[in-house]
Specification:
CATH topology of the largest domain: Glutaredoxin
Number of helices: 8
CATH architecture of the largest domain: 3-Layer(aba) Sandwich
Structural class: alpha+beta
Number of domains: 2
Largest sheet: 6 strands, mixed
Strand content: 5-15%
Distance between the termini: 100 Å
CATH superfamily of the largest domain: Glutaredoxin
CATH class of the largest domain: Alpha Beta
Number of strands: 6
Strand order of the largest sheet: 1-6-5-3-4-2
Order of helices and strands: HEEEHEHHHHHEEH
């Protein structure tokens, strides 16, 4: 009887842990991708950029998008395609992706590989592969990916667990948590934080609204003409 009771107790604990893990991962996805929440912020997207962050599009672009994403997040991947399309259509966009691996160990592993690839100037090449790859990142898969991207695998493998890569990983996670981010994608444009994915048409409309707002703010800040 004691053994049976102990087994039931252990089983209950395992179920509770499993439910907790499931709930943990579910909270990492936006509650409504069809109509994602928009939150007004006191700061601008541009103010979130830090030295060493990857910059796509126009580095001097007047409109900045900062995107906290996970390489394994389907809505993040859809938005990545739309951001790429947007940068081709609008040469004034500066897009800054922030790797925020909150969807489990495979995401962390893939992000470590990305940061290690940066040391070989191959971040973009590996990111292009990982953002389109269906299997979860494993060491075997990453080795194949490295060959496709022209990355030295032994060097990458060593760098993945280096203090520099670990520090960057922890820094990105701390940044997202400090902003209160619980979902991916969570991206910033102007004074807005948008949680989840939107259509390309909605993205273009959002950009136009923010650009208009920026021009209006710049116009209001212009000094009055001097009277002689």
């Amino acid at each position: 009887m004691i053994k049976r009771a102990a087994l039931f107790a252990i089983g209950g604990i395992l179920i509770a842990v499993a439910l907790a893990i499931t709930a943990h991962h579910l909270t990492r996805r936006p509650p409504n991708n069809g109509n994602p929440p928009v939150i007004q912020t006191d700061f601008t997207a541009a103010s979130l950029i830090r030295p060493g962050d990857p910059v796509f599009g126009n580095p001097s672009g007047r409109l900045t998008i900062v995107d906290f994403y996970d390489i394994r997040c389907p809505p993040c991947r859809r938005m990545n395609l739309r951001f790429n399309r947007l940068m081709k259509a609008n040469p004034d966009i500066r897009y800054v992706p922030i790797d925020f691996p909150i969807l489990g160990k495979p995401s962390v592993l893939g992000t470590r590989a990305l940061f290690a690839a940066t040391l070989q100037h191959k971040y973009r090449a590996l990111r292009h592969i990982l953002m389109r790859q269906k299997p979860k990142p494993t060491m075997a898969i990453l080795k194949t990916d490295a060959a496709k991207a022209g990355i030295d695998w032994p060097e990458l493998k060593t760098a993945m667990n280096s203090p520099a890569v670990t520090a960057r990983l922890n820094s990105n996670l701390a940044r997202g948590h400090a902003l209160g981010l619980k979902y991916v994608p969570s991206w910033y444009i102007g004074h807005r934080r948008i949680i989840g994915s939107i259509s390309y048409a909605a993205l273009v409309k959002t950009v136009a609204e923010v650009e208009s707002r920026q021009k209006q703010t710049a116009g209001n800040a212009s000094p009055a003409p001097h009277k002689s």
